[in-house]
Amino acid sequence: MAENQISTIELPVTGMTCVNCANTIERTLKKTAGVGSAAVNFASERAQVQYDPTQVTPAQLVERVRQAGYDVTVAHAEIPLLGMTCVNCANTIERTLKKQPGVSVASVNFASERASVDYVPGAVSIADMVRAIRKAGYDVPTSATTSASTDNLDVEQAAREAEISMRRRRVIVGLVFAIPAFALSMGRDFGLLGANAMMAGSALGAVVDWILLALALPVQLYVGYPYYVHGAKSLRNGAANMDVLVALGSSVAFLYSLLVLVGILSGHVYFETSALILALISVGKYLEAKAKGRTSEAIKRLINLRPKTARVLRDNQEIELPLEQINVGDVVLARPGERIAVDGIVIDGRSAVDESMITGESLPVDKKPGDKVIGGTVNREGLLRYETERVGKDTALSQIIRLVEQAQGSKAPIQALADRVSAVFVPAVLVIALITFVGWMFVSRGAFEQSMINAVAVLVIACPCALGLATPTAIMVGMGKSAEAGILFKSSAALERASSISVTVLDKTGTITQGKPQVTDVVELRSVSDDVQIPADASGSTENIPSPRVAMEPQKFLSLVASAEKGSEHPLGQAIVQAAEDQRLSLSPIQKFMAVPGKGITAYINNHQVSVGNDRLMQLQGIDTTMQAGQAEALRAQGKTIMFAAVDNQPAGLIALADTLKEGSTDGIAALKKLGARVVMLTGDNTRSARTIAQQAGLLESDEVIADVLPGDKSAKVAQLQERGEVVAMVGDGINDAPALAQADVGIAIGTGTDIAIEAADVTIISGDLREAARAIALSRLTVRGIRQNLFWAFFYNIILIPIAALGLFAQYGPILAASAMAFSSLFVVSNSLRLRRAKPVF
Hints:
Elements: E1 7-14, H1 19-30, E2 35-41, E3 46-51, H2 58-67, E4 71-72, E5 75-80, H3 87-98, E6 103-109, E7 114-119, H4 126-135, H5 142-151, H6 155-189, H7 195-198, H8 203-223, H9 225-236, H10 242-261, H11 271-295, H12 297-303, E8 309-314, E9 317-322, E10 331-334, E11 343-348, E12 351-354, H13 356-359, E13 365-367, E14 372-373, E15 378-379, E16 384-390, H14 396-409, H15 415-443, H16 448-461, H17 464-484, E17 487-489, H18 492-498, E18 503-507, H19 508-512, E19 518-524, H20 552-565, H21 571-582, E20 592-596, E21 600-605, E22 608-613, H22 615-620, H23 629-637, E23 641-647, E24 650-658, H24 665-674, E25 678-682, H25 687-696, E26 704-706, H26 714-723, E27 728-732, H27 738-743, E28 746-750, E29 763-765, H28 771-806, H29 814-834
Parallel strand pairs: 18-25, 18-27, 25-26, 27-28, 28-29
Antiparallel strand pairs: 1-3, 1-4, 2-3, 5-7, 6-7, 8-9, 8-10, 10-16, 11-14, 11-16, 12-13, 12-15, 17-29, 19-24, 20-21, 21-22, 22-23, 23-24
Helix pairs in contact: 6-8, 6-11, 8-10, 8-11, 9-10, 10-11, 10-16, 11-29, 12-17, 14-17, 15-16, 15-17, 16-28, 16-29, 17-28, 17-29, 18-28, 20-21, 24-28, 28-29
C-alpha cells in the first residue's frame, strides 16, 4: 500500500457487548482488501481504520462491520444544489461527494437539484461537503448551510443515547418481572406460602410454578433478545463472546425449568434464576454503558469549546455567521466574555485572553496587534478584531481533538496480554462449564439438577468484559485529563512508555532557556561624544529616558551600538536593537553597513565608523581590547556572550548578552528529579557557559551536563544513554532537534501555543512550561497504575470466582450470585478508571 494513498477513518460502532466483539470486528476489517490496519476500542466503541481508497471505500468498510453483525452510526443529509445545467453536472457532484472521506453513499438528483448523502459523523462534516461542491464549480444556498450547521444534531451521540435508553428499558422490564419472581420463589422455599406450595405435584405448587413461568417469559424474550442475537452472530463469525455465555446460562436454567413444569423432568424449577441472570447482567451493562460515556467527557468538553457562530465583518457590515461559513482572511470580532471562534492574528484592540482550556496556563495572556489567538479560548477584557488564519479542521483545537481521539483509539502494549486471554476466554469457560457438569454428575452420582446449577454458575460468572475494559477505559480518562492540562500524547504506547522514564534529557535552548538572547550588561569604556549619537525618547526629549541600570553615558553607548546593529539579521544584533527600543532610545540612520560573517558588523553612523562584534573582529581591525579583558572574562564566567564595540577604530565598550531561563524551568527540573528521573542537560554551548546555566536552573555538580554538542549529534548522545539501559525522554522544541526526539524512547516537544507542530513528537506540551513535562510523566504513571489495578482485578476475579462456582460453593443460589458478581466486575473496572479523573498526579 503506497504511503501517499493511505487514508484514515474512524467508525462509531454500535452493538458491541464485550471485548470479543471488538476483536471480531477488528479481524473482519483486517481481512478486507485494501485495509492496512484496524484497531477497535471497546471502551470508546470506535474503529480506527487505515485503508487504501483506491481499493476499498468507506461504504464497503461500513458494510463489512454490518456483515459481522454490528452496526455503524451513519448520518443522513439532504443538500440543495445550485448551478447544475445538465445531468453531467449531477454526476460530477456525485463523484466529488463520494471522494470525501467518510461519505458512504451519495446520490444527486438533477431534477430536484438535491444531493442525498449518508456519511460517518466525525469523519466528514456537511461544511466539508459544501466546500467540496463549491470547489467543483457549483453552489449551495447559504440558508441551507446555516440550517445544516445549526440543526444537524450529533448523530453519533444520539445513537449512543438511544442505545442507553434501550438498555434502560430492558433493565426496567427485567427488574419489574425478575424481582417478584425471586420473591415468590424465596417465599416458597422458606415456607412463607404454606406447606402445600412446597410439595412437589401439589396444586398450589403448580400454580406457583406457572406464575413463575409467566414472570420469567417476558424477561427471557425481551431482556434476553440482544444476548441471543449477538451470541448467534458471534458464533457465525467463529468467535464466541460473552453473549454466548449469558444466553447459554439463562437458557439452560429456563429450559430445564420448562421441562420440569410440563412433567418431562422432575425436580425444582429455576425460572427466577434465569430471569435474575438476565436482569442483573442487564443492570451491570446499563451502568457500564453510562460509566463508559463519562470516560470521554474530556473530549466532549474540548468539542464544546467551539462556539456555534461568530461576528464577521463583511463589506463593512457586522454579521453573525455559523463557524462553517468563516473563511481564511475574514475579519472577526470578539467582545469581552466571548470565545475566539477560530485561529487568527489580532489586527486591532488589546485584551487579556484566557487560554487555560487549550494550554493549561492559568493566567490570562495579554494580546495586542500582531499576536496570535487560538480558537476556543475566551476573550476576557477588551474588544478584539482578528484576521482568521486557520479554520475548520486546520485550527489548533480541531487538531488537538483529532490527535486525542486517535490516541485514545490506539492500543497500549500492556493490553496485548488481555487481548490474547480474551481470544480464548469464552471457549475455555465453555470447556470448564462442561467439565463442571460432568464432574458433578460423577461426584453426585447423577444429580442432574445440582450439576446443571453449578455449570450455569460457571457460565454466568465468567467476565471477559472486565479484561477488555481494563486498559482502554483508563487510557481514555488519562489522555482526556492530560489534554485538559495542555499535554497531548500521540498514542497509548507513548503514554505507557512515559511511565517508565528513567532519564530526561533537556535541550537547553528553547527548553530550559527562552531561546533568544537578551542584553544583560552595558559597559562603556569611554564617553561617546554628542556628535556621534544623541539619544532621545519618543517625544524628542533627552531628559526623561528611563534607565533602570545605567546613567546617561551608557544609554548613549547602547543607542549608538543599536543604531549600527539595526541593519543586522543576527539574533544578537536584534537583541541589542530590542533592548534600545525597550528603553525608548532613538536610533540614528545607517549611512553604510557591512556584515563580517562569524565576527560582527561595521556601520557608519553620523560619519563615524562603528564596529560591533566578537574579539576576532576587533583583532581583524587592529583594535586593542586589553583594557576590557578583565570585565569580559568575568562576564563570560557567568555564561554570557560578549560583543565588543569600537568607534573610529578605538575601543568604546562592550555589551553582554545571555539566553535567560524560562519561568518554571527551575521548578520543572526539581519536579523531574522528584519523580526519580535523572536529568541531563544537552547544549552546544562551551562547558563553562553550560555549567553556569545548569547551576541557575538548579542542576547540581553531580548532574550530567553534555556541552559542545552539534545539532546533528544530539541523537547520538541520546543513543549512548539508551545503550546504558536507560529509558530516555528527550525534551526539545520539536523544530531543530527532531532527530533526537525520534531517537528517544519518548520524545517530548515543548513549545508555545500553536507555534509547534503537534505531530512532531510522542508527547506535545502546548504551553512551553517545563513543569508540564513532569506533569506528563506523573499523569502517565497515574494512568498505567490504574491500568494495572484494573488488569489485576479482572484476572483475579476470574481466576478466583470461576473455580468457586465450579466447586459449587455458591450452593443453589450460585447462578444468581454469579450474575451479580459478573455485573459488578465490569462496573468496578470502569469506576476505577473514572476515579483517575479526580486523582491528582504527584510531582
